[in-house]
Design a protein that fits this description.
heterodimer, A: 294 residues, alpha/beta, six-stranded mixed β-sheet, four-stranded antiparallel β-sheet, 10 helices, 13 strands, B: 239 residues, mainly alpha, 13 helices, 82% helix, transmembrane helix (chain B), membrane (chain B), ABC2_TM (chain B), ABC transporter permease (chain B), transmembrane (chain B)
Chain lengths: 294, 239
């Protein structure tokens, strides 16, 4: 990963009539980076993504991809692969014909059989698109996006409808793209996929960034939690704990290890058994849920 | 562009409905008119037969196929997929419409040649050629415009009816009744002046100067259809 921005978004605004889908959004994606754009439904991530891809025009602000306008297809598109959220293939063409057609139009060079092999569609090469399952169509979509190993790949909900094996295969292929130096921009509802793979995450809410940073930077803004139950007539724990409706105690802490050590020491000294004990760092899910309270 | 055109050609030959609408129906109707040319020449003239077969091909072969193709490609987001690549919008559109346009042009050329072989050569071939060109361009533009207000291939069965009926009806009206009465109205209707141009070109007997005046309204309709196309056509489905 280098410090050269592949994508440079500066004060982007997008409006549809009176509705402001995106407000003053600014961010950069560096060469070789894996950037995840996440958000609640209607947060504006698809509008943002489609503007960066060149499918939409910004109401105001600037978007540069490889230093150029993304609307300049001839200059930008040969260097980028786009996996759309929805299929977009002609039902009467076969898998091979579809990959060949879209591949030729990207102006990149590759072998159709190699690309079909990546997504395990070699045996379906002669099958019409109309006869593919939803998951197979997603894999076909991925195949056209990675045709010719583009420098920048957009993955819009790439694993929706895929079984576990296909998901693993897809992420293996993405890993290979990264090893080849490609920059990846991902949107997904599967937060664990972003948490495991993204170098940085932009978390959108109501058209703007709620937070942006690495997973660690995002999760450290919220406290870790320790949950447990106490036997009847046990004394109150030594840390500030709140009692939940289900009778469980909840401790929120930014010093998980220290406070967990204190709690366990207290329980041992007083011969108290902590029931249903659960302790863990904040996950991206917790950060995501916290958006709703904003 | 040519790879898109090749893909479209493959799809036309795999889709029976489009194949019947684009190929079989216009050719069957044209064959009937040519076979019964004595009867239809009495009703109108040989030029009338030429005009009617031209508009059968233009309406059912070119116009309806254009609307159905574009509505279908937009509905299944194939247009968006194509726009995700390096090719320009003009290149996409040319690639998509090249097969149906070439097919329509070849159909008209073959049918009119057969008519000429059976009934005799037209008086002014150049006028006939210009009329064919104007008719096909107008129907292509109207096809793009109609595709803009057509949500799906099924919807195209409804949205293509008015223009198809009006153009074929106008060709029939002008072809049979001529333009002695209500000349302004007939020439201003879509296909009216083109039909008169074709009648003059095929039948002869009209000074060339009078025919050339018809180029104005004929190409005005081409301009109108292209203007409508640029204003009404949309690349993505309404959400």
């Amino acid at each position: 990963m280098t410090s050269t921005p592949v994508i440079d978004v500066d004060r982007l605004n997008l409006s549809y009539g009176d509705f402001h889908a995106v407000r003053d959004l600014s961010f950069q994606v560096m060469r070789g980076e894996f950037y995840a754009l996440l958000g609640t439904n209607g947060a504006g991530k698809t509008s943002t993504l489609e503007t960066i891809e060149g499918h939409r025009t910004a109401t105001s602000g600037t978007v540069r991809v490889f230093g150029q306008s993304p609307r300049d297809r001839q200059a930008v598109r040969p260097r980028m692969g786009i996996m759309l959220q929805e299929s977009g293939f002609s039902p009467d063409l076969t898998v091979r014909e579809s990959v060949r057609l879209i591949g030729q139009l990207t102006q990149r060079t590759d072998k159709v059989d190699r690309v079909l092999g990546i997504v395990d569609l070699t045996r379906k090469a002669g099958t019409k698109v109309s006869q593919l399952s939803g998951g197979e169509k997603r894999r076909l979509d991925f195949a056209t996006a990675v045709y010719g190993t583009p420098e920048l790949v957009f993955l819009d909900e790439p694993t929706t409808g895929l079984d576990i094996q296909s998901r693993d295969d897809l992420w293996d292929a993405v890993d290979e793209l990264r090893e080849a130096g490609s920059t990846i921009v991902l949107t997904t509802h599967y937060l664990e996929e972003a948490q495991q793979r993204a170098d940085r995450i932009g978390l959108m809410h109501k058209g703007a960034f709620h937070r942006e940073g690495t997973v660690s930077e995002l999760t450290r803004t919220l406290p870790s939690t320790i949950d447990f139950t106490l036997p009847p007539h046990a004394p109150m724990p030594p840390l500030q704990a709140t009692r939940e409706n289900d009778g469980k105690f909840l401790i929120e802490t930014f010093e998980l290890q220290k406070d967990l050590h204190t709690l366990l020491g207290w329980a041992q000294d007083n011969a108290i058994e902590l029931g249903e004990l659960e302790a863990g760092p904040t996950s991206l899910d917790d950060v995501f849920r916290a958006i709703d309270s904003v | 562009m040519f790879s898109i055109a090749l893909g479209e050609l493959i799809q036309i030959f795999r889709n029976r409905l489009v194949l019947v609408t684009s190929f079989v129906l216009p050719i069957a109707m044209s064959a009937f008119f040519i076979y019964q040319h004595d009867l239809f020449a009495k009703i109108g003239s040989l030029g009338y037969i030429a005009a009617v077969v031209l508009f059968f091909v233009a309406a059912f072969g070119l116009y309806t196929s254009t609307v159905t193709t574009l509505a279908s490609r937009r509905q299944n987001l194939f247009l968006k997929r194509l726009r995700s690549t390096a090719i320009s919008d003009a290149g996409i559109m040319t690639g998509l419409l090249l097969p149906v346009t070439v097919i329509a042009l070849v159909q008209v050329a073959v049918i009119l040649t057969v008519l000429a072989v059976v009934t005799g050569t037209p008086a002014h071939i150049a006028l006939v050629a210009v009329a064919v060109l104007a008719a096909l361009l107008m129907m292509l533009g109207l096809g793009l415009a109609t595709a803009g207000v057509t949500n799906s291939p099924e919807h195209a069965q409804v949205t293509t009816l008015p223009i198809s009926l009006i153009t074929i009806g106008t060709a029939t009206w002008v072809g049979i009744a001529g333009t002695d009465s209500l000349p302004l109205l007939k020439r201003l209707l879509p296909g009216g002046s083109v039909t008169e141009l074709l009648l003059n070109g095929w039948n002869g007997g009209v000074p060339l100067k009078d025919s050339l005046i018809l180029l104005g309204p004929s190409f005005a309709w081409v301009a109108v259809s292209i203007t409508l196309a640029t204003r009404l056509f949309r690349w993505e489905p309404r959400r």
